[in-house]
Specification:
FAD/NAD(P)-binding domain; 5-stranded parallel β-sheet; alpha/beta; 28% helix; 25 strands
């Protein structure tokens, strides 16, 4: 009998959780370790912030998925990996031994030392932070004029800014929203995509500040790199994310971003008993963008390769696509779509995104 440990219940582990019976039928035991009962779907996170979705519509009950199928669920987190002993150290002090383990622990927003965390600072990962922010904003007096700052000029920052405006509008609140976009809004996408967002945000009184960067934050005041200061009621950090330092601290081979370095079979390059999926890996063959589409496509492959590893059978390679569909939810009932350099926008684009997202939720809820 072999012991499989799943660390984290993110997008790349959902098929595994749904089909745990395939491991039990082969005589294996399974333990799921996660610091949270629920996993929130990142593709619908901005819509949660904007009151388009309720929390229960965008989350998976991974504890129930595990326990109802016969696995052990531990409300805990892994603090150290000891591959030579095939052992995991948990934050509770508990120790687990494994035959095979798979990690899907996501990524986290980097908080630099010049930013002092407080109750008004909201990193956009994990996604549950957006629900915390929504609840905090909803208890502010309706007559209070809010000043909200979004840091980051990429897709995440753009969706957060647009959905903050929707939250204020649909709850009868007023406020100023500033998006600090760094060098340039949506710098890695076509100019037409940027133009769509600029036009929409200007109409909705969302201020976008390009050629501007965050230099510090403390005590409700934002400092910009031009020396100016802004008072704020909430700061949303939507800039670069990176995997947790767990793999580097455990002495495993990692990429430049500290992601577990894996081969085409999604195995650790120096510890074949360890697998990874989603944002927490570094794909040795070529860099992968930290977007959910790769984690979703890794779902069935991780299932097959973990079963094959436990049975001593050959593994299958992951062949990531070069292009992926990106649809931004701009928070006004519209979406902006990018596919292979083509850009489309409109209400039908958001309806398409909503249909895709709801279909994904139905598959695993």
């Amino acid at each position: 009998m072999s012991h499989l440990i799943l660390v984290g219940g993110g997008h790349a582990h959902l098929t595994l959780l749904q089909r745990l019976d395939e491991f039990f039928r082969r005589g294996h035991t399974v333990t799921v370790v996660s610091p949270d009962r629920y996993h929130y779907y990142s593709g619908m996170g901005p819509g949660l912030l904007g009151n388009t979705y309720l929390p229960q519509q965008i989350r998976f009950d991974i504890q129930n998925m595990a326990v109802s199928r016969g696995a052990t669920f531990l409300h805990d987190s892994v603090t150290n990996i000891q591959p030579a002993k095939k052992r995991l150290m948990l934050s509770s002090g508990q120790t687990l031994t494994y035959d095979t383990a798979s990690f899907n622990v996501g990524s986290e927003v980097v908080i630099p030392p010049e930013v002092e965390p407080d109750e008004a600072l909201f990193p956009v990962k994990p996604i549950v932070n957006l629900e915390t922010a929504r609840q905090r904003l909803l208890v502010t007096p309706a007559g209070q004029k809010l000043r909200l700052v979004v840091v980051g000029g990429g897709p995440a920052g753009t969706e957060v800014a647009g959905n903050l405006r929707r939250l204020l509008e649909c709850t009868g609140r007023h406020g100023e929203i500033l998006q600090i976009a760094g060098h340039r809004l949506l710098a890695n996408f076509p100019d037409r995509m940027r133009a769509h967002v600029l036009k929409q945000f200007a109409r909705r009184q969302i201020d976008i500040r390009e050629q501007s960067h965050l230099a510090g934050y403390a005590g409700g005041r934002v400092l910009l790199d031009d020396g100016s200061e802004l008072e704020t009621d909430g700061v949303f950090l939507a800039w670069g994310v990176r995997p947790p330092a767990l793999f580097r601290k455990s002495g495993l081979s990692v990429g430049e971003d500290d992601g577990l370095l894996v081969n085409r079979m999604l195995q650790s390059v120096d510890t074949p008993e360890l697998f990874a999926g989603g944002d927490c890996l570094c794909f040795k063959e070529r860099p992968l963008a930290k977007v959910g589409v790769y984690a979703v496509r890794q779902n069935p492959l991780l299932l097959e390769n973990l079963l094959a590893t436990l049975a001593g059978q050959p593994l299958q390679p992951f062949n990531p696509q070069r292009h992926y569909l990106l649809i931004l939810n701009t928070g006004d009932g519209r979406g902006v779509l990018h596919w292979r350099g083509h850009v489309l926008a409109g209400r039908w684009v958001f309806r398409l995104k909503d249909r895709i997202d709801r279909k994904f939720m139905r598959k695993f809820q």
